[in-house]
Amino acid sequence: MPLQPFHPAVTAWFRHTFPAPTAAQAAAWPSIRNGQHSLIAAPTGSGKTLTAFLAAIDALICEGVANGGTLPDRTTVVYVSPLKALSNDIRINLEAPLAGIRAELEKLGLPDVDIRTAVRTGDTPQLERTLMRKLPPHILVTTPESLYILLGSESGRKMLGTTRTVIVDEIHALAGNKRGAHLTLSLERLECLCQRRLLRIGLSATQKPIEEVARFLVGVGEDAALTLAPPPASRGRLGGGQTSP
C-alpha cells in the first residue's frame, strides 16, 4: 500500500481526507521516498502537488516526533513556481494538511510538530523577509527570480544551505526558455551551496517530449523516474476536489 511507509499521523490524515491515493501518488511515492529524482506528469486535479510535498512533510514530522516535537530552525524544502500567484496559493493550501496532521499527532498522544512555511517573492514585505532571515521556514515557497536573488545574498545562502528537496512546479512552462535556463543555473548553484545531492521533483502537465523535461529537471549525468498519470477523478486542494471520504 502506498501509504504504509508514512508516519501514522500522516497516514491517518490522508485516509480521513481522501478516499484513496491518486494514480500519480501511488506511482510516484515509492521513487520519491527512495530518493530518486522524479518528474510527475499528470493533468490538473491528479494530486501532483501533494504527491511532491507529502514525503518531505512526512520526513519533517518523523524528525520532529523523534526530537520531542522540536525541529531545527532550518529550511529543508524549496518549492519553485513560475507564478507568484501560484506560490501564494500553494502556501495557503499547505495549511490544511499541516493542521490536519498536527491534529492526528494530538490524537495519537505524540508531540506537536510545528512545520513553518513562508513565501518569498518580489511582493514579500520587508518585515516578512527580515523575520524569514531570523527564523527560517522549514518549507520555502518562491519563484525562479527570487531564488536567484536569495542565492546572491549572504543571508539567503545561509537560509538555503540546509535544503534537501527542491520541487519545481509547472516545469513544462520553464523548460526551453530563458527563465528555465536561469533556473537550471540556480539549481546547480543551490546544490553546490548545500554540498549534497538534492532530491529534485518536477510537476508538469502531460507534454511531449516529456523525457526532455525530465533532463531539464535533473541536469547532466542524472536520471529521473517518470510518473505519467491518466486523467483523474474529482479531488480537492492539494489532493486535487473532495476533501472528505
UniProtKB/TrEMBL annotation:
Pfam family, one: DEAD
Entries under InterPro entries matching the protein: ATP-dep_Helicase, DEAD/DEAH_box_helicase_dom, Helicase_ATP-bd, P-loop_NTPase
Gene3D superfamilies: P-loop containing nucleotide triphosphate hydrolases (3.40.50.300)
GO molecular function list: ATP binding; ATP hydrolysis activity; DNA binding; helicase activity
Residue span(s) of domain Helicase ATP-binding: 29-225
Keywords: ATP-binding, Helicase, Hydrolase, Nucleotide-binding
PANTHER family: ATP-DEPENDENT HELICASE LHR-RELATED, ATP-DEPENDENT HELICASE LHR-RELATED-RELATED
Protein name: ATP-dependent DNA helicase
Species the sequence originates in: Dyella tabacisoli
